[in-house]
Amino acid sequence: MSAQATVAPAHASAKKTRKRILTGDRPTAKSFHLGNYYGTLANRVRLQDEYESFFLIADYHMLTTRVADLEEIGQNIRELVIDYLAVGIDPKRTTIYLQSLIPEVTELFLYFAMLVTVPRAQRIPTLKEQMRDHDLALPTYGLLGYPILQAADILMVKGDLVPVGRDQESHVELTREIARRFNDLFGPVFPVPEALIPEGGLLPGIDGATKMGKSLNNAIFLTDDPKTVERKVMGMYTDPNRIHPTDPGRVEGNPVFVLHDTFNPDRAEVDELTRRYREGKVGDVEVKRRLVVALERFLGPIRERRAQYAADPKAVDRIIQEGSTRARDEARKTLHEVRAAMHLDYFGL
């Protein structure tokens, strides 16, 4: 694969031929981790074969909680896209675009804000979580309107499906309310999107926590080199009640075995280790060493593809620019419909 490959327009037709999905990420960190891959990225790679896919780099959304912490946002954006490409997101089939290059979305946000009351916006469950996580006594207007801006993102490209975690399901429900309200007032402009929630649960952290997270210092990142992966795996939490290798061990909920089940393609090996561990016939060290090998088989090709794209940042920037051009074409068409439906296209201008 060459990072120099030219990206042909993926969505040039004026008419939708397949259902559309809209998903995305805030550029808050320089790399995804295994939990992100398991929870979202692997599903996105599959979905691009079935749906017309739009992937949003949500830099406006990042401003809602990190407006004073933007020094590295440009590099984070590029690293985010490199991760997309490295795991198998294909810019020939998926439109990858930058939110701030689509000014139409802020106009649509303004119109949608007229349809949502303040008490309704305050009922979004994640609002209190965001305030707590970022030590905010009161929400800013931008944070309060965050789900409305998300609705504008989704409906600007007329997304039919929105892959989200359960914590974001309430945001999609608000989007559905906005779409129905707009259509009732002004005519059938928007689809009423549905949340597409992955069946899998969370991937545990290497410390035994129920969730692997960037800020929790318990993650294995896609960018980790082999020595870092080995160090993290060999220090992983296992069964706290198992004192000796000959003691029967608990597999259920054991992070080492969860990672084996998720990333080790050798099912015979996983089954053998599971049986021996339960019988007290294999130690934690061997189980972890086998996991190191399995993770290297998984991460090695991703790391190589990342290196190819990282060596050619202009190619990455070109993918962002071309995707943003395609997304803006869609945004202009949508906004033209919206303004006409609302009778805001004064004098035909």
How would you concisely characterize the structure shown here?
With 349 residues, this protein is mainly alpha-helical. It has helices at 34-47, 59-66, 73-87, 104-113, 118-122, 125-133, 141-144, 146-156, 169-186, 226-234, 255-263, 267-279, 284-310, 313-341; strands spanning 20-25, 52-57, 94-98, 161-163, 194-196. It folds into 2 domains: 20-202 and 313-348, Rossmann fold (3-Layer(aba) Sandwich), CATH 3.40.50.620; 214-304, Orthogonal Bundle (Tyrosyl-Transfer RNA Synthetase).
Largest beta sheet: strand ordering:
1-2-3
Q: How far is the N terminus from the C terminus? A: 46 Å
Structural class: mainly alpha
Rg on CA atoms, Å = 22 Å
Low-confidence stretches: 1-14
> In percent terms, what proportion of residues is strand?
5-15%
Attribute tags:
single chain; 349 residues; Rossmann fold; Tyrosyl-Transfer RNA Synthetase; 7% strand; elongated; disordered N terminus
Please describe what this structure looks like.
The chain is mostly helical and 349 residues long. The chain has two domains: 219 residues, Rossmann fold (3-Layer(aba) Sandwich), CATH 3.40.50; 91 residues, Tyrosyl-Transfer RNA Synthetase, CATH 1.10.240.10. The chain has 14 helices and five strands. The strands form two sheets. A three-stranded parallel beta sheet has the order 1-2-3. A two-stranded parallel ribbon has the order 4-5. Helix 9 links the parallel strand 4 and strand 5. It starts with 19 loop residues before the first strand and ends in an 8-residue tail after the last helix. The N terminus is likely disordered.
